[in-house]
Design a protein that fits this description.
The chain is α/β, with parallel strands linked by helices. It has helices at residues 16-32, 82-93, 111-123, and strands at residues 47-48, 59-64, 70-72, 75-76, 100-105, 129-131, 134-135. Helix 2 crosses helix 3.
Amino acid sequence: MNFRNKQDEVVDINLTPLIDVVFLLLIFFMVSTTFQKSSEIQIDLPEASGEVEEKKDFVVEISIDSQGRYYVNNRVLVDKNLATLKLAIRQTIGTHKNPQIVISADKNSTHQSVIIAMDAANQLGLSKFSLATKQSKEEK
């Protein structure tokens, strides 16, 4: 018979390898993840009925958001002045002859901001333009 006192061993879980694995997974996901900043213009177009117009080869899109900021082919302008808008349109057109001008205004934008965009296009000799809308839900 063995009457020795058994010494209770302290059960210990070694967390060092677990922490190493977690850090390796963290580094893997940080390196393999791509961070892409999406900067899409948020415009809620008004609804209208009508036919969809075919686009020409070169299109200049003047977008107006609900705060009245102007975008020319998805590039934001520094201010809301007519001269700045005309310069941006002129630079975008370059040497193209008779481009299609599309004005996309948010349904909450002011009437004045749409008139300024139309005036800028007209002052540059671009009298043919269209206003972008989305189809009404009844017609779909």
